[in-house]
Amino acid sequence: MFRLIPREESFFDLFEQGARNAHDGALALQDLFADFRDVEAKAAKIKEIEHNGDRITHETMTRLNRTFITPFDREDIHELISKLDDVMDLIDASVSRMVLYRIQTIPDDAKAMAQVLVEATKILVDLLSHLRTDLKTEAVLQMCIEVNTKENDGDRILHHALGGLFENGLDTATIIKWKDIYESLEAATDRCEDVANIVEGIAVKNA
Fold it and tell me: Which fold, 10-205?
């Protein structure tokens, strides 16, 4: 359809950048958990990725405030980029707590949670690339379902991990530390699901 004032298409670039940044953060987390050495240096790398996410979010908000015609509802743009940023914020928060708590070893459940985040954010990279041209395809709905499945996996791992904390005779301080970390990691999977739900809502509105 002809438009007297064209839509600002650069939002799509920013969405894709935000998704890739979250995926980069998840990969960096997985790398840290797989080889838990040079922790401070790897944590600094994750912090740098988190700062890049903040930059992407700020640029999106600036464009949103300056743009007359947007690709879809302003509220959806705001929520979408905010939830993408939250994924990276929570990954960074989890790692920062590990440094603060002087964590020495990584349990299998934490490694499994990192794997879920890698898989969920990879789907988001593919999902956000569809926003520009083929939002209404069956593939979009399927990817949203897949992200929801990953979030369910995160819930399952969290429950297993928390149960293990109380079954393995750990001291109270260790239980509190790991409960905090596990819940932060699982919250990151929740934000992935939020992103998928927002995209699904946008697809429905524009059907």
Answer: Methane Monooxygenase Hydroxylase; Chain G, domain 1 (1.20.58)
